[in-house]
Design brief:
Layout (H helix, E strand, L loop, with lengths): L1 H12 L11 H9 L4 E6 L5 H18 L5 E6 L2 H16 L3 E3 L5 E4 L2 E7 L6 H4 L4 E6 L7 H10 L6 E6 L7 H8 L4 E6 L9 H10 L2 H7 L17 H4 E2 L8 E7 L6 E8 L7 E9 L1 H4 L5 H12 L4 E6 L4 H9 L4 E3 L4 H13 L3 E4 L3 H9 L20 H14 L9 H9 L23
Parallel strand pairs: 1-7, 1-8, 2-5, 2-6, 6-7, 9-15, 10-13, 12-15, 13-14
Antiparallel strand pairs: 3-4, 4-5, 10-11, 11-12
Helix pairs in contact: 2-3, 3-4, 12-13, 14-16
């Protein structure tokens, strides 16, 4: 408790010289000025938004305790897992044992004050806070919280001097957070953050992060701009860079990703993992049956037989299936396969897949001609922009959907958000040697052969 009070005094008074090296000017400004009913920290990834906004949330709890107010607080994120991953570790690092949290409960205590922890992954989450009267609230990544939940939260924090503190990366300029709160609301204060506003981010880390995002994601997550998702979804895709003629050898294992259609096309992808070799992940083979183009629709049993041939003599670790393909799943189980329903997080899945391809972790073999064509023709739906939604057009989407199912469902690490390829490369064959960015082709001047 003492360390928090001391740090709080430092921030308010700015009388301690060492404080200048710990917080940026933008962090200090936002901390002092966040006295509106709704306060929003927006901007790029790793810009210090969450860190300073949590300090501000802790101050709000301290003030409530000092004034002996009766009531509770609430902390919202997309899922309960994201609270545990993104928020609780930072709180733990700030106040240690003054935060009490039990994994079996959806609540924590900060200096004895109850804080409800609520995951808001769909519109039904609005009922979780209906009827509640809160002294204040914290919202992690507000743009991925359903609008009905945010609107209900505003009503729950309307009494007295209750305040809401939000963080978010930018989204569509038509998103309700931008239109209804940041741009046109006298009860809102907001601050834009960039990588330069986080004093703990080194130039090396900044350069690394800038290399990981391309196109739309670079504008939003690095530049912190609210821009439309227009044009090609994978606008960075370049056959000269992202397509390979051959795989680097025998894979450790493979997975299969499936987008199933009845009147639409059905697509299978064989995605192989090569461990310490480069590239680590290669889309090696495709199956594509367009019933409209072929003028013949296949049955579930025919597709199942095709899949059995597709995986024959291959070391298959998992089969990830379109979540809507219930009848096909039943048929696959009947023939002895064990498919898993793929994760269908569309935007997060696209972003992660884009990161993996643009960074070089995933390559596509040249024989996957339909997938290569589809990735180049996969575009955003301009009509959905008016409602602030990012949605790809349902044209040339079957193979890109299958790719997203496989990459996101299998390789996305929920505990750390991204696979730490650099660390894996270091363990594999760069011990005590310069480590090139693993998302790029290894520097030939190092004279290190990555295939072994």
């Amino acid at each position: 408790m003492l360390s928090f009070i001391c740090s709080y005094v430092y921030i308010v008074s700015m009388r301690v010289k060492s404080f200048e090296t710990v917080f940026s000017n933008q962090q200090k400004t936002s901390f002092k000025e966040s006295t509106a009913k709704i306060n929003i920290w927006q901007g790029s990834v790793r810009s210090g938004k969450t860190y300073i906004s949590l300090w501000r949330f802790l101050k709000e709890i301290t003030d409530a305790n000092t004034k002996m107010k009766q009531g509770e607080f609430v902390l919202l994120a997309r899922t309960f897992d994201s609270i545990k991953r993104n928020v609780l570790p930072i709180l733990q690092s700030l106040i240690g044992d003054d935060m009490k949290f039990w994994y079996g409960k959806r609540e924590m205590y900060i200096w004895g004050r109850l804080v409800h922890l609520i995951g808001c992954d769909d519109e039904r989450a609005e009922t979780k806070i209906r009827g509640m009267t809160a002294l204040g609230a914290y919202v992690d990544e507000a743009t991925i919280i359903p609008e009905s939940v945010i609107k209900m939260l505003v009503s729950r924090c309307a009494m007295g001097d209750a305040r809401i503190f939000m963080t978010t990366n930018p989204d569509s300029p038509f998103h309700f957070i931008k239109k209804d709160f940041i741009d046109n609301n006298p009860d809102v204060k907001s601050w834009k953050f960039t990588l330069d506003d986080n004093p703990l981010v080194t130039e090396e880390t900044k350069d690394y992060l800038k290399r990981q995002y391309k196109g739309l994601w670079y504008q939003r997550f690095i530049l912190g701009e609210w821009v439309m998702a227009s044009g090609a979804v994978y606008d960075f895709f370049d056959q000269e860079v992202h397509v390979v003629k051959e795989s680097p050898g025998v894979p450790l294992y493979s997975i299969v990703a499936i987008d199933y259609g009845t009147t639409n096309a059905t697509a299978f992808l064989l995605i192989s993992f090569f461990g310490s070799k480069y590239p680590k992940i290669v889309v090696e083979q495709e199956y594509y049956w367009d019933s409209k183009e072929r003028q013949r629709q296949k049955t579930d049993s025919e597709y199942a037989e095709d899949l059995l041939k597709f995986v024959k003599n291959k070391n298959i670790y998992g089969i990830y299936l379109d979540p809507s393909a219930t009848s096909f799943r039943t048929e696959l189980i009947r023939v002895g396969l064990k498919p898993k329903y793929a994760s269908n997080e569309v935007i997060e899945g696209i972003r992660y897949t884009a990161d993996m391809i643009s960074g070089g972790a995933v390559k596509i073999r040249a024989n996957c001609v339909n997938l290569i064509r589809s990735l180049q023709n996969y575009t955003w739906d301009p009509k959905s922009q008016s409602s602030g939604q990012d949605r790809p057009l349902k044209i040339e989407d079957h193979l890109p959907d299958a790719l997203r199912y496989g990459i996101f469902s299998h390789f996305y690490k929920k505990s750390s958000e991204k696979v730490d390829w650099e660390e894996e490369f270091k363990k594999a064959f760069y011990e005590n040697s310069p480590v090139p960015n693993p998302f790029q082709i290894p520097d030939p001047n190092l004279n290190i052969q990555p295939y072994f």
